[in-house]
Amino acid sequence: MKQWIKANRTTPISILLEQMKPKLIGHYRYYGITDNGPMLYQYWYEVTKLLFKWLNRRSQRNSYTWEKFLLLLKAKPLPTPKIYVSIFYEQQCPA
What is the pTM of this model? Predict the structure, then answer.
């Protein structure tokens, strides 16, 4: 994700965020199993920090403060982690 954000940081922000959504959802679907929730939230947080870092490197002055960046994410939120597979799920067999 770091390399992708760095390579695509010059695209308009709305397009960049729309392109990030399927990437994050794909990551959550692959790693979203029981007991992996804390690590998914850690991944989401790290991606958010990377996005903040590389958006601020688009020009010679900072584009965003952390508060302004959080307002951007409130307006155009990134998908939050979700557990897709429970390894403890038991199927009910008809008796």
Answer: 0.84
